[in-house]
Automatic annotation (TrEMBL):
The keyword DNA-binding does not apply. Binds 4 [4Fe-4S] clusters per heterotetramer. Contains two stable clusters in the N-termini of NUBP1 and two labile, bridging clusters between subunits of the NUBP1-NUBP2 heterotetramer. ATP binds at G66, K67, G68, G69, V70, G71, K72, S73. Component of the cytosolic iron-sulfur (Fe/S) protein assembly (CIA) machinery. Required for maturation of extramitochondrial Fe-S proteins. The NUBP1-NUBP2 heterotetramer forms a Fe-S scaffold complex, mediating the de novo assembly of an Fe-S cluster and its transfer to target apoproteins. Implicated in the regulation of centrosome duplication. Negatively regulates cilium formation and structure. Its cofactor is [4Fe-4S] cluster. The gene is NUBP1. This is AAA+ ATPase domain-containing protein. It comes from Denticeps clupeoides. GO terms for molecular function: 4 iron, 4 sulfur cluster binding; ATP binding; ATP-dependent FeS chaperone activity; metal ion binding. InterPro entries: AAA+_ATPase, Mrp-like_CS, Mrp/NBP35_ATP-bd, NUBP1/Nbp35, P-loop_NTPase, YlxH/NBP35. GO terms for biological process: iron-sulfur cluster assembly. [4Fe-4S] cluster 1 binds at C12, C26, C29, C35. The keyword Cytoplasm applies.
């Protein structure tokens, strides 16, 4: 993959490209002479270090969204909890939303400190088999602002991947900021040699969100990041009393379902609005354990999560409440097949 610097012009061919420093897009770029000389093509030694460090991590899944506020971090946290509900599965959640780290709050570990050992930084453990790492653990206060330019953000992501003592993991889930920024480029670059499984993209039903998701999908195509599928969040609200379903965010252009049909991508499912999810996030509690009788929690708990690789497949199972027209979802990823076919 061509490495595109954070301050590059719009059509930068990338520092590792044969056209680096030679195209019309390179005119006026402060790095043009460096790229043209070939010096910028030298691989970052951290990539190989990260590859070695993550050799004991079987599957790496990136969670993306085109727009903020669509529930990406909430989905990442619930996915981590669902995976970790199997005591034999080792899971870690990495929060690389440098400027807006919400994972510590959602996971109930806000205010925890990162400890350093001889083997690197020790992540914070929510459960015996569920670890979390976030820049939020390095801030003096949750209200402290992180005002960093791209290179410093990239350096922190590199440090998370290279210096954290993850140990042996079945799944590393990477929660990213919205959009297609430096953080996304860094994650893909540093994980490329370590065999990243792919991305799950979160959206809401309305076109204003889908428009940004299409850009996110295009980004994945450009950097050769496989798209596992799309999840439509906040997809309808079922009244707990009358059981009627209302579309709070109407899918005016057909929602994620039509978009996935047009782009040939799997629609992994639709997650309904449930106020209890937000309440549990504010309290740092697992929605799956606090409201185990809810349709969404049952769907997560019954699922076997994994990701699509060359030798595996995605199964999508829809559960329908017989008293409601709303369709709840399960992303049924073949965990057994993934572990059997995985090549570390």
């Amino acid at each position: 993959m061509a490495d595109v610097p954070s301050d590059a012009p719009q059509h930068c061919p990338g520092t590792s490209s044969e056209q680096a420093g030679k195209t019309s897009a390179c005119q006026g770029c402060p790095n043009q002479s460096l790229c043209a000389s070939g010096a910028a093509k030298a691989p970052d030694p951290a990539i190989e270090e990260i590859k070695v460090k993550l050799a004991t991590v079987k599957h790496k899944i990136v969670v993306l969204s085109g727009k903020g506020g669509v529930g990406k971090s909430t989905f990442s946290a619930n996915l981590a909890h669902a995976l970790a509900s199997d005591a034999s599965t080792e899971v870690a959640l990495l929060d690389v939303d440098i400027c807006g780290p919400s994972v510590p709050k959602i996971m109930g570990v806000e205010g925890e400190q990162v400890h350093q050992s001889g083997s690197g930084w020790s992540p914070v453990y929510v459960e015996d088999n569920l670890a979390v790492m976030s820049i939020g653990f390095l801030l003096g206060s949750p209200d402290d602002a992180v005002i960093w330019r791209g290179p410093k953000k990239n350096g922190m992501i590199k440090q998370f991947l290279r210096d954290v003592d993850w140990g042996e993991l079945d799944y590393l889930i990477v929660d990213t900021p919205p959009g297609t920024s430096d953080e996304h480029l860094s994650v893909v670059q540093y994980l490329s040699a370590a065999r990243i499984d792919g991305a799950v993209i979160i959206t809401t039903p309305q076109e204003v969100s889908l428009q940004d998701v299409r850009k996110e999908i295009r980004f994945c195509q450009k950097v050769n990041l496989p798209v596992i599928g799309v999840v439509e969040n906040m997809s309808g609200f079922e009244c707990p009393k009358c059981k009627n379903t209302s579309q709070i965010f109407p899918p005016t252009t057909g929602g994620a379902e039509r978009m996935c049909e047009e782009l040939g991508l799997p629609l992994l499912g639709k997650v309904p609005l449930d106020p209890r999810i937000g309440k549990n996030c504010d309290e740092g509690k697992s929605f799956l354990s606090e409201v185990p009788d809810s349709a969404a929690a049952l769907a997560y708990q019954d699922a076997h999560f994994a990701s699509r690789t060359v030798n595996t497949r995605i199964n999508v199972l829809f559960i329908t409440d017989q008293n409601s027209v709303h369709v709840y979802f399960i992303i049924l990823w073949s965990l057994q097949d993934l572990l059997k076919n995985n090549v570390a």
